Amino acid sequence: MAKRQRILAVVGARPNIVKMAPIYHAFKRHGLPLEIVHTGQHYDYRMSGLFFRQLNIPPPVVNLAVGSGTHAWQTAEIMHRFEPVVVGRKPSLILVVGDVNSTVACALVAAKMGIRLAHVEAGLRSFDRSMPEEINRVLTDVLTDDLFVTEPAGVRNLKKEGVSSGRIHLVGDVLADALRLYGKAVKRSDVLRDLFKERPKTGLPAYCVLTLHRPANVDDPRTLRRIMRAVQRIAEIAPVVFPVHPRTQQRLQSASTARGRGGESQLLFTAPLGYIDFIGVLSGAKLLLTDSGGAQQEAFILGVPCLTLRDTTERPLTLVGGMNRLLGSDEQRIVQEGLAILARRRVPQRRDYWYIDGHAADRVAQVLR
Questions:
Q1: Are residues 71 and 102 in the same domain?
Q2: Which residues carry out catalysis?
Q3: pLDDT (tens digit per residue) in 36-67
Q4: Residues 267, 240: contact at Cβ < 8 Å?
Q5: Whole domain around residue 322: which residue ranges?
Q6: Residue 348 in 3-state DSSP?
Q7: Domain contains 367
Q8: Phi, psi at residue 200, to the nearest 5°?
């Protein structure tokens, strides 16, 4: 790809920004001109703007400022606002990452305008069409010219869907790149010191991390109660750090005073954390409880056992060696598995793979050159 050509890279939500950061730096090293367009799907500073500053990437050349809305409205509005940007900037390639509404919306614009499209994190499948992200993944990959895949399961999925081998590139996971790239900054973070101000002289206690944001878990009161009861049981044994996603905030207003059945709950609520602080917390944890796909993968790369509060995962590599268990909202299983890991009655073993060697973004750049 000639230097004079222009690549538009699309982000919309905080996971996109994390994945785009190592891509931006790799493209810069390889002399590929990359301009970032932000759709504004996430617009809270803690969920978006903070990440640009912390990850040392330039502000977007355009912010579409779409904001919240239904899936249909948001997708359509992104398309409506993105098309004039494409007309004006005349890119030779549009690059999308992940599986949010911004991903599929901008992929549709690229396809309809006949512009080459690259998708980083292609081929991931949970096989659960009730998840909006799964629809986004499938549709984006149908439209994509160059599909950059994180793990072998993604290659198999795409081939089963009829994608030709020449369009599929197994490059590894850019989330591992981000962890390698920002490792020193993570070590400098003071977040754990701030969270555990009254820590014992022996050091930090063994603690867990919880993230929770999916509508299936948060919007159904019965499901949310089951999950929170299980978490509170675990929090009687070890502190549980809970950065609260904006969509869960209003549903958890009274949760900070809740107690488990036997003892004092150590459930530590915090505001949403920036990438550096979140990884700082996660890397020292004994256990992650989550319904996030990206957090599952980050925990796997870091060697932190994970209990996924879903019935499916798009990242089967994380299940190897028992590093990740799919538990849904089963209260009893969440408690049993969580306490077993904390008591070391079950010790998951992570295996090393080249897919998480921290050089995926360089491979993407090499292919596009």
A1: yes
A2: 213
A3: 999 998 665 554 567 888 899 999 999 999 98
A4: yes
A5: 185-342
A6: coil
A7: no
A8: -70, 160
